[in-house]
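Progress note, project year one: complex with zinc ion.
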Amino acid sequence: MPKKKLKSKEKIVKVYMCATDWEWEIGEVLGSTPVYSSVKSLKDERSCVEECGIVEVEVKLSQWIQPENRKWGKG
Ligand SMILES: [Zn+2]
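Model obtained:
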């Protein structure tokens, strides 16, 4: 394994989502479900939140599934 600065497992990142995405999509649909680093960027990108609402979500790394395999930056 290459030396890598992993984010601590204990680090929790707060992100913001459309409340409908949270209730119906995350973990359920194929593909990605967007999260945003701030309420402002969520509102800028997703006009639906005026109707859907906004939730704050905590993201925590639970397991490193596939090791990094970068070709560049070695040596
Ligand atoms: Zn929405």
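The first helix runs from residue 19 to 25.
Residues 18, 20, 46, 48-49, 52 surround zinc ion (CB under 6 Å).
No further modelling is planned for this target in the current period.
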